[in-house]
Amino acid sequence: MTRKLAVVVHxxxxxxxxxxxxxxxxxxxxxxYWAGWLPALAALAVGLTLAGTDRRRHTADTRPPVEVGPPxxxxxxxxxxxxxxxxxxxxxQYGQTYAIDIVAEDEERPRPPFARLWPTVxxxxxxxxxxxxxxxxADATVVHAEDGQRDHLSRNSLPAVAYLMLxxxxxxxxxxxxxxxxxxxxxxxGDGTYAMYAHLKRGSLTVRAGDRVxxxxxxxxxxxxxxxxxxxxxxxxxxxxxxxxxxxxxFTWRGVGVPANGETFAAGGPAxxx
Length: 274
Fold this sequence. Notes:
CATH class of the largest domain: Mainly Beta
Number of domains: 2
Order of helices and strands: HHEEEEEHHEEEEEEEE
CATH architecture of the largest domain: Distorted Sandwich
Number of helices: 4
Distance between the termini: 37 Å
Oligomer: single chain
Number of strands: 13
Largest sheet: 9 strands, antiparallel
């Protein structure tokens, strides 16, 4: 509860700073210039405290990897893999210490390459991962499921990435975890382990909170919602269903392991067998 409160306060402090900074463009604030920076300085202090707490929590966590089935079938490549570093995404926030991103590989319809300037953005449909089915990695209970956020255009060019990093990501962070993850589903696998799938396609969920699902059952489709540069699957295990307080849990995919950055792997079929 204390951590949850700290996360909310951290977010509110940044929001106060952003609002008053924007307002000061149009009206003269009724306080000295230096006072306008106090919310930002306080937010930085809370953020540093949270980051230090996260590092200590991670160091104290000695859970072995949990073996589950892969969440996809077919050929995929790994990005931001915990096989190369932890935290894999540069932060322990949102329980993503051991998170992994994967993108679909299709020889007949390859992924569009990263562009320096043009095309600045692409449609989600141009990427082979978009619309790919996602499956339950184990028998589980659905504890959270939402798919109402839109699938945006790609951010796979220099101007688009700059916009994502400098504007969009900051706005989503202020709005909270659900805007960062976009459409997502969380499964309770039992024994204090939860699986989270992020950036789902809008309107693609086949389950809802409270449903029991079997390993290999289709849950949703891969999309490009939330803080995403292109359609891909963000998968992670964690020790609780609340993204603001959960700690990451290491995983290994049955029949696959933990693919390293850039490694292409094939998943499906026997990989779901225990």
